[in-house]
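Mods, move this if it's the wrong board.
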Amino acid sequence: MGPETGGATKTAEGVGDVAAPSRGALSTRPLAVGALVVVLLVALSLPFTMSNFRLFQFTQVLIYAIALLGLNMLTGYNGQFSLGHGAFYAIGAYTTAIMMDKWDIGYGWTIPVAGVLCLIVGFLFGRPALRLEGLYLALATFSLALAVPQILKYFEHWTGGSQGIVLNKPKAPFGLRLSEDQWLYWLTLAVAIVLFVLAYNLLHGRTGRAIVAIRDNHIAAEAMGVNNPLYKSVVFGVSAAYTGVAGALSAVAIAFVAPDSFNVFLSITLLTGIVIGGLATISGAIYGALFIQFVPNWAQDISKAAPWAIFGLFLIVFMYVMPYGIAGFLRLLWIRVSRSVVTRRGEVR
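Not the wrong board. Structure tokens:
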């Protein structure tokens, strides 16, 4: 691995190393389960407490969280940098849009097809990119992000060219009395839960240990019998599949796709999200999604003349205050609180 990769992974490793001693003093598992239950209850209550516009925004948060989780598996857990995941997001979105618009296929069938297609494209792209590491891999994926929007404009018969494709938001099935935004939120939430559970099982099993071993020291991992080329390609494909599913859900939720919506800035935004949320953390995908969805809007409200300057200040503050990302900051905060509780119990005894 190059020096850039090592620097990024040390951030995630540092948090994990600090977190280890606290497990013996005070188990964090009950807290984690309780926090997960609270988050699910809040997520389930949103459709009954939010307006359709706010619900649409939280649907976008879930969509971004899926994409960020895919990118984090590649960058945070496996150490491969990508500046081209906006391209997979576009492929997933256009797969759904074309199938719905040209072939009149139900949106429910298009989402898994988009994921499988991006899995294949990501795997095939990852094979020749195995010789590249660090910034060289980032530049290769950056070229993908540059090329895909232009290619989409070229096949105007299928993609609608620069005008894009306009879709109709699907209505709730089975006669359910839900608005279109409510139904799309429920659909996105269900898909997100399934994908997060799959990612957790993948990353906390034998495959996940092999993925992290490649990130930490690929030579040692290969000496231990890990097939580096195969695992790297598979991770790239799975990461692309997650991002493609997010793109497909975005096409259904927004009901519109256009090449200019998937420019290089989208790829940079996704990379920003995983760093702010926390590298090599599953929960960091949610925190990063909340950041990239709402902070730009807050910056726009603060200063309409220079919103990106305000957004830049937010980034600087977050990186200065939370160098391990939001997930790492919360974990360190819990460690300090738990240690103080254990110390006070010891003094009382």
